[in-house]
Design a protein that fits this description.
2 copies of one chain form a homodimer.
Chain A lengths: L4 H16 L7 E6 L2 E7 L2 H4 L6 H13 L7 E7 L3 H10 L3 E6 L1 H6 L4 H8 L10 E3 L3 H12 L7
Parallel strand pairs in A: 3-4
Antiparallel strand pairs in A: 1-2, 1-3
Helix pairs in contact in A: 3-4
């Protein structure tokens, strides 16, 4: 599929809905498959008390529920802003083909959002981040991974 | 608060529950506040058809629902594995004080998970990633950010 400006405009309209109605930040996203919108979302962090309710996360969950699948093969995501690291991660786990975005992480930072800050933090050694992440190795945890590797019945994702 | 091995063991037990019961991958996480578990989760990606249903995401949503808050001030997260970039992003948006983890991203990669791959991809220029992310600048999207900046009634997060 090639870029379709109408889909980007729809995602941007969702971002305006979110902020003007007080749902959350000014962010909207949709998932498109075969020229049809199969999932949509807007930011509802503050209204739903859910810090993970970013537009892309909501749209991906919406599309996956509709497809009864945890994968978005053959799909494209249109979003009003470059995905933050959380949403980028969600996109990699859902595996659509491509993402189109309007505003950048730097414009998001200028509007008061932490996207660029988190991109800076993610490459730091875990224990030195502003939210320290501390490695506590554990034999039982390692053993559970070994059991997973040997399990012939597991569903891969 | 200081590290409490019992909390890590509980998160690891959740990871074993998830994989042995077929909910999803072998990952578990909890949120602790004032010495009490206020949220917990295990991976349920494949059983719920939700690629965002990682242990940390589920635990954060669970804790935030309990607190009626989109922030986890004064909390710590214990997780059976180093957070993937999606979960790291969610942690930054929820803003707990600290994270303790058992297995690493490299051990996750050895067990067949994309965590390390996504950490490698996130630092690449968006358009060159294996899932290309393409910037399509748009005046309307920029204008919505400007309106957000000027809105005196917005809830910051």
């Amino acid at each position: 599929m090639s870029f379709n400006k109408d889909f980007l405009k729809y995602a941007i309209a969702l971002s305006e809905t979110s902020s003007s109605a007080g749902h959350g930040g000014p962010f909207g996203a949709i998932v498109v498959k075969n020229g049809e919108i199969i999932g949509e979302g807007f930011n509802s962090v503050t209204s739903s008390n859910d810090p993970t309710a970013h537009a892309e996360i909501v749209a991906i969950r919406n599309a996956c529920a509709r497809l009864n699948s945890f994968q978005l093969d053959g799909c494209e995501i249109y979003t009003s802003c470059e995905p933050c690291p959380m949403c980028l991660g969600a996109i990699y786990w859902a595996r659509p083909d491509r993402v189109y975005y309007a505003n950048t992480r730097y414009q998001a930072a200028d509007a008061g959002f932490d996207d660029a800050f988190i991109y800076d933090e993610i490459v730091m050694p875990p224990e030195t981040r502003s939210i320290p992440m501390i490695h506590c190795s554990d034999k039982a945890a390692e053993q559970i991974f070994e059991m997973w590797k040997l399990n012939p019945d597991k569903t891969l994702y």
